[in-house]
Design a protein that fits this description.
Elements (H helix, E strand, L loop, with lengths): L4 E6 L3 E7 L5 E8 L6 H13 L9 E5 L2 E2 L6 E3 L12 H9 L3 E5 H12 L7 E7 L3 E7 L2 E2 L37 H12 L5 H9 L3 H25 L3 E5 L3 H15 L9 E3 L6 H12 L7
Parallel strand pairs: 1-4, 4-7, 8-11, 11-12
Antiparallel strand pairs: 1-2, 2-3, 5-6, 8-9, 9-10
Length: about 300
């Protein structure tokens, strides 16, 4: 088949749909705010409306990358944070299939980004890719031979919950203290800066201040980047990928320090495994969702 496919990206603030060709190129795109506070039905309605605008040029399944932990067997949400209230338990695959009249295949948004980057981005032509998404929080995914390694609960690759030195006073999004996400993420930068100065800023503003010479902000960013890089070097020894990719809104600010510590900590047997910035940007989840639609075998329990 050479017809394009539709990928959907459901996030806490925006929802997008795209028509993607078989080379991983976005041909058309639709986007709207996610009505998160209105509940799951409203969120699904927006996703279906955006996708419907693009379905006429396609056949076959639709792919979805969504916030939350996805049950790989059912396409439902096992767990989600308050960025999408009530999202936990939502049968996304079945609910969207009923609205669209197509089979729908669903994965976590970071998994989808990893698929997209492996197919058409910085991980192209690499069989095994570890992707880490550094945004408000911190997520990860591992793709081997074009397939996401989902784990027993659909949550493999959650690097944000690894213990991290220097994060002992910082609270992770999961509610515990001392995790990597609590340090090396947008929320982590904001929390660390507040502890150092008593001033509450966004993670983005902390990164901007670091770039313009704020000494405390620079310390916070460099410390977070150094811990991130060292942790990724350890994960390379554990997971043995061909490359590590970093994406997300806070990635560019953390990568310089992360690259230094990554190189310093990387064991010699993996010295050829690069740490690279991802290249697809906001399209990564959409492209990966489209790839999911193309590749995943049909469910047999319908």
């Amino acid at each position: 088949m050479t017809t394009p496919v539709v990928g959907i990206d459901i996030g806490g603030t925006k929802t997008a749909a795209a028509l993607v060709d078989r080379a991983g190129r976005v041909l058309e795109r639709r986007e709207a705010p996610t009505p998160a506070r209105a509940g799951p039905e409203a969120v699904l309605g927006v996703a279906a409306r955006l996708a419907t605008d693009l379905l006429g040029a396609t056949t076959g399944p639709v792919g979805v990358g969504t916030a939350g932990t996805v049950d790989p067997a059912t396409g439902g949400i096992r767990y989600a944070t308050d960025s999408l209230p009530g999202w936990t338990g939502t049968p996304v695959a079945d609910a969207l299939a009923a609205r669209l009249g197509r089979e729908v295949r669903v994965t976590n948004d970071v998994n989808a980004a990893a698929l997209g980057e492996s197919w058409a981005g910085a991980g192209r032509d690499r069989a095994h890719v570890l992707l880490v998404a550094v945004g408000t929080g911190l997520g990860g995914a591992l793709v081997r031979d074009g397939r996401v390694e989902a784990g027993a609960r659909g949550a493999a690759g959650e690097v944000g919950h690894l213990p991290a030195p220097g994060a002992e006073q910082l609270r992770c999004g999961c509610g515990r203290y001392g995790h990597l996400e609590a340090l090396a993420s947008g929320s982590g930068l904001a929390a660390a800066y507040a502890i150092e100065t008593g001033t509450h800023l966004t993670g983005r503003t902390v990164a901007e201040r670091a770039a313009t010479g704020d000494g405390v902000a620079r310390l916070v960013v460099e410390r977070a980047g150094a811990v991130l890089g060292a942790t990724l070097a350890g994960l390379v020894a554990l997971l043995d990928p061909d490359a590590v990719l970093v994406t997300g809104g806070a990635a560019s600010s953390l990568l310089p320090a992360a690259s230094v510590s990554y190189s310093a900590e990387l064991a010699s047997g993996w010295a050829d495994v690069p740490l690279l910035p991802a290249t697809l940007g906001a399209d990564a989840v959409l492209v990966g969702a489209a790839r999911l639609a193309i590749d995943t075998p049909e469910r047999t329990d319908r």
